[in-house]
Write a structure and sequence with these properties.
Blueprint (H helix, E strand, L loop, with lengths): L14 H27 L7 H26 L5 H23 L1 H9 L4 H28 L3 E9 L9 E6 L10 H11 L6 E4 L8 H8 L10 E4 L10 H10 L3 E2 L3 E7 L2 E7 L17 H5 L8 E4 L6 H6 L4 E4 L11 H7 L5 E4 L5 E4 L17 E9 L1
Parallel strand pairs: 1-12, 2-3, 3-4, 4-5, 7-8, 8-9, 9-11
Antiparallel strand pairs: 2-12, 6-7, 10-11
Helix pairs in contact: 1-2, 1-3, 2-3, 3-5, 4-5
């Protein structure tokens, strides 16, 4: 996007669009709650009337309460109590929805095995509930633990020998939020500081909430150590949470905010351009001066030098290819966070996680994320602190 492209500072009100959005959300909620309600409460279980009534009331209350709690928690006020309840509900609803559908395989197997009537459905219901409970408990533990270090070597043919072995530590999607995680944040930085990093990068989605709300959780970032640079770019969630405030705060913590700009790091007589662009949603956020601008980010850079680009979303790889970037590092996808949500993520993003090639020159590394967003669960999508070791070709 060119520097001169207009940025909408006051988004226009579109009543029709708001109504369509509300109807869509309502339909999705009816589906997510209706499927487990039908298979767990109704269907062929033949539960006593009281059980059916009580179960129906629980699902009906969830249907009404969830959007209210979600708006209260993640709306303009960022109220942490309702946000925690809504986020947890979302995770539980998703798991029950998925396994209520998959549980019908159990029903089919029992039918083939000759199990009759209510017993067949009640056994399937018990299997669904047990699997869902185990996955939620395990997924919560996975989300709350300190991420394991994922080590990846990346060969960059244009990288000079003096920079061979450069150690880049990638953090992304920390999502400091309504669940207080200051201790977790400190432990993450303790791990980072054991990795002898030359460059530490954060590719956005630092927090859900304004700086004043999350300053304690973000404080350990100021203690991250790197011999050459600490660099940061905005993610899409900054644009719900005071993006410019986070850019300024990261600068106060001693990080270089690569707000459509670059710096050059050197070692052993060789240099590397480290550039960053705003998230692709920035232009429509209404925050003045924020939009992804690869040309501005690379303006004045020596075209003979290799380029490392920080960009929050893998989808921004098209701009990286067009501008001859050697390696883009991103986050955003969370690796899907809760299986099988990754199938929906892939509808929007070219890559889910890991190292991928997108042109003869350009590679992309996509992290599964350091923290979690919303539901405090990670199911078959572990978090990571990434150690990328750059190798000269």
């Amino acid at each position: 996007m060119s520097v001169g492209e207009a940025v909408e500072t006051e988004p226009r009100r579109r009543p029709g669009r708001a109504i369509r959005f509300a109807l869509t959300i309502g339909a999705v909620l009816l589906l997510l709650l209706g499927v487990p309600w039908f298979f767990l409460i109704m269907s062929g279980n033949s539960w006593p009337g009281g059980v059916r009534v009580a179960g129906t009331i629980v699902f009906a209350v969830a249907l009404v309460a969830f959007p209210i709690l979600m708006f209260s928690g993640h709306g303009p006020r960022h109220r942490d109590g309702p946000a925690v309840i809504a986020d947890t509900m979302l995770g539980v609803i998703w798991v029950l929805f998925v396994w209520s559908l998959l549980g019908q395989v159990v029903t089919l197997i029992l039918w083939i095995s000759g199990v009759d009537g209510p017993a067949r459905y009640r056994v399937a219901t018990a299997v669904i509930v047990v699997i869902s409970l185990v996955l939620l408990l395990w997924g919560h533990a996975e989300a709350r633990r300190v991420p394991r270090v994922r080590r990846v070597d990346v060969v960059l043919p244009r990288l000079g020998r003096g920079l061979d072995g450069l150690r880049l530590v990638l953090l992304t999607d920390t999502h400091y939020g309504p669940i207080e995680r200051s201790r977790w944040s400190r432990r993450v930085i303790e791990v980072v500081n054991t990795l002898d990093a030359d460059v530490v990068a954060h590719t956005g989605d630092i927090a859900d909430g304004e700086v004043a709300q999350r300053v304690r959780q973000a404080a350990p970032l100021g203690d991250a150590r790197a011999s050459l640079a600490r660099v940061y770019v905005t993610g899409n969630h900054e644009y719900f949470s005071g993006a410019q405030g986070w850019v300024d705060h990261m600068s106060e913590l001693g990080w270089e905010a690569l707000h459509n700009r670059h710096l050059v790091v050197s070692r052993g007589g060789d240099s590397l351009v480290v550039a960053g662009v705003d998230d692709r949603t920035a232009a429509g956020s209404g925050v003045p001066g924020h939009h992804a601008d690869h040309e501005a980010a690379l303006e004045g850079a020596d075209p003979a030098l290799p380029v490392l680009l920080l960009a929050h979303q893998p989808q921004q790889i098209t701009g990286a290819v067009a501008h001859g970037v050697d390696l883009q590092i991103s986050g955003h996808t969370h690796g899907g966070q809760m299986w099988p949500f990754h199938y929906l993520v892939r509808l929007d993003q070219p890559v889910l996680q890991g190292l991928s090639r997108h042109s003869e020159r350009t590679q992309l590394y996509t992290s599964r994320g350091t923290g979690f967003w919303g539901p405090p669960f990670r199911i078959f999508a572990p978090s990571e602190i990434t150690l990328l070791t750059l190798r000269a070709g």
